[in-house]
Design a protein that fits this description.
The chain has 270 residues and is mostly helical. It has one domain. 72% of the residues lie in helices and 0% in strands. It contains 11 helices and no strands. The protein has helices at residues 6-9, 11-37, 44-72, 75-83, 93-100, 108-112, 123-130, 139-152, 156-195, 201-242, 259-266. The longest helix is centred in the C-terminal third of the chain and has 42 residues, at 201-242. The radius of gyration is 25 Å and the shape is elongated. The two termini are 38 Å apart.
Length: 270
């Protein structure tokens, strides 16, 4: 297991994603604009050499670019980017939680803790977790969950879930920042081409394909970020009930669980 922080471990993957997006934007937006606005058609060899040189420079700089782009957006804003598509479908309870709270630990015990999770094998552990269901959804639940997370953050399943969550969130943020300038460049130069009376149909097809790819990428990364975030919460809850360690203290005592809850957990049919 690497001793580097998870964010540092993800740098290479984020840089690779940055390189792919920069190359895609160059070949589908910048390069066609250069060829369209050029007065003379360059030879194939000169064009190929120029393209290879530019691509090499871009790949060399992707590490620096990914670090800069990642630092531009705060963690809170990265979460906001991940939940933007949910504003179109705020009908389910899960989507409303993500829109309002943005951190899955805020509804860990009331909605993400699954009674049928086979990893929670002890009935006593289920009773211990059940007491937290009375805690209001929001920061209170997140504090309790995070206290449990700090006890088990070195467990392999927790590390892997956290790494995947941070990776997809970083990828989503940097690719969004990369996409917006390319769209602006297209709109700016597209008007210029129309002003010069040049045919822009090829560029229109190119921007349609580019926009579709970027939108699909955005939606997939957004879904992946939320899924990995919820998996992280569930893994912490599962590990917390099967490992040694103290459950976080709360204002709610186990004694306050009523008899009906005890029967539900102790005698529930499988």
């Amino acid at each position: 297991m690497s001793d580097l922080p998870l964010i540092e471990q993800n740098r290479r993957d984020v840089a690779f994603m940055v390189a792919l997006n920069l190359m895609l934007g160059y070949f589908m937006i910048i390069h066609p604009l250069i060829l369209k606005s050029s007065s003379g058609a360059p030879s194939f060899s000169l064009e190929f050499f120029s393209t290879i040189t530019e691509c090499t420079a871009v790949i060399t700089m992707t590490g620096i670019i990914s670090i800069l782009l990642s630092g531009v957006i705060s963690t809170e804003n990265k979460r906001r980017i991940a939940v933007l598509p949910l504003y179109l479908f705020p009908f389910t309870k899960s989507n409303r939680y993500w829109i309002c709270l943005k951190q899955p630990g805020c509804w860990a015990f009331t909605d993400l803790m699954i009674d049928e999770d086979f990893r929670i094998g002890s009935e006593l552990a289920k009773i211990q977790l059940a007491k937290y269901k009375s805690i209001p959804i929001g920061k209170e639940q997140n504090k309790i969950w995070y206290a449990l997370y700090t006890q088990h953050q070195e467990k392999p399943s927790v590390i892997q879930a956290n790494k995947s969550y941070l990776l997809t969130m970083e990828m989503l943020a940097v690719t969004t920042l990369i996409t917006l300038p390319f769209l602006y460049i297209y709109l700016f130069f597209h008007y210029d081409l129309l002003h010069q009376g040049l045919d822009s149909s090829a560029m229109d097809n190119s921007i349609a394909i580019y926009s579709s790819i970027m939108m699909a990428q955005y939606l997939l990364l957004s879904i992946a970020t939320r899924t990995y975030g919820e998996n992280l919460v569930k893994n912490v809850l599962a590990v917390g009930t099967t490992s040694e360690g103290n459950f976080p203290q709360s204002r709610i005592r186990v004694d306050n669980i009523n008899e009906r809850q005890r029967r539900h957990f102790l005698y529930k049919k499988i």
